[in-house]
Specification:
Blueprint: H1 11-40, H2 44-70, H3 90-117, H4 121-151, H5 155-165
The structure holds magnesium ion.
The site of magnesium ion has 5 residues, from α1 and α2.
Length: about 170
């Protein structure tokens, strides 16, 4: 291909964003796996919530993908890890989802630090969106974990929660 006419990206930022595309797709994969597990457990509301969450993660990956394309970068996609597929309970599932989101938050912050260090201003603007999004992700996962803890072993409470989750 011809030489790019755009301001070139720093390789470190480009590579870190490529890596993040993989993590966002992994998130989509993880939540799809969780949706499957809820489906098998006859909790259609939780399953539907997780399916939507999975779709949102795919959109996150695409935001980064399109950002690299807009900057004139060729995107080299990486292999996605296999997610777990067996979960002990709805609470265990959401505790794992919350832990995963905390890990993603720290990756986003690391990316932000790198984009500041490399003076990549467009990347900082993009990452601002993700910084705010991660606050929302941790908040919603935390809320569900708390409510599942309240429900405890009460199956009526669990079924009510399932119904509500299906309304997302
Ligand atoms: Mg995400």
């Amino acid at each position: 291909m011809d030489e790019s006419t755009q301001t070139p990206m720093k390789g470190a930022v480009r590579d870190a964003i490529s890596e993040q595309i993989k993590h966002e797709f992994y998130s989509a994969y993880l939540y799809l796996s969780m949706a499957g597990s809820f489906g098998v457990a006859n909790l259609p509301g939780f399953a539907s919530w997780m399916r939507k969450q999975s779709e949102e993660e795919r959109e996150h990956a695409m935001k980064f993908f399109d950002f690299l394309l807009d900057r004139g970068e060729h995107v080299q996609l990486q292999a996605i890890d296999q997610p777990p597929y067996a979960f002990r309970s709805p609470l265990d599932t959401f505790e794992q989802a919350l832990e995963h989101e905390k890990e993603i938050t720290s990756r986003i912050h690391g990316l932000y630090d790198l984009s500041v260090q490399e003076k990549d201003y467009p990347a900082q603007v993009l990452l601002n969106w993700f910084v705010v999004e991660q606050v929302e992700e941790e908040k919603s996962a935390t809320e569900i974990v708390e409510r599942l803890r309240m429900a405890g072993e009460n199956s009526t409470a669990l079924l009510l929660l399932d119904k509500e989750m299906g309304e997302r």
